[in-house]
Amino acid sequence: MVLRTIPIRRAGNRHNLFMGGDRELVMFSGLLAGALVFSAQEWKATIFGVFLWFTSLYLLRLMAKSDPKMRPVYMRHRRYKGYYPARSTPFRENKKAQGNP
Q: Is the residue at 49 inside a domain?
């Protein structure tokens, strides 16, 4: 009896990238740059908005090239507490000698 092999296609296994960077961050930086350009309506703001867009796009592409899942990993890291006390169970009663929090 021979084991059946199923090929995993690359199209169904790609990262969610847009223009080479993380989809949400690229679109949000484009939104910020566009809002800056159209709300200020000055040449300085236009130049700064275009510079902001291309700089953020370059940095987001570098970030996605090093790790395409960097944003979700960072967001999960931000949800963690700074300190987890050493306890065996949440239902344990601490005595006075152990330093009741």
A: yes
